[in-house]
Amino acid sequence: MPDISIVPEFPGKRIDQPKFAARRNGGAAFGSLTNGGSVSTCSSITGRVEEFPELAREFPEVQIILNHTGMQVDGPDFFEGWRSGMNVLAQAPNVACKISGLGMGDWTWTTESIRPYVEEAINAFGTDRCMFASNFPVDKLFSSYDAIWNAFKAITGSFTLDERHILFYRNAERFYQL
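Below the sequence we write its predicted structure tokens.
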């Protein structure tokens, strides 16, 4: 069984399994984050969507960050299920979404093919609970670093400058206490 470990670069912890985190030592391991740490989840929301809101409700003072846009790696045929899961997760005010890793589900992605995922994540969580990130070096298998960031810029071209600053760096500073 995996252990919950400190990520040395950030003042938080990473978890892979929400139910494991909640029950380990009666939730003591996860509850130890209540001093302002962040949690970055690596798990797909597929099949686990009910676990994250449960964990968020049990520990409302812990900031949970959904990694890689919920890891929708099953392709466009599963978009509606992914969107539904994202909307369920977004109901928990202490869950934020890191928009990244979209190439893992679409190896030949384009700005237009990832646009629905980016827009739906932002629609669900709002600009105050989303942030852009890369998944390098894994993303290098599917595109260039510049292509990813240029796609995010194109998708948010109609957003205000302040909204773009929030998505591109302010939320990361706030959530990771940088």
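The CA atoms of residues 76 and 93 lie 27 Å apart.
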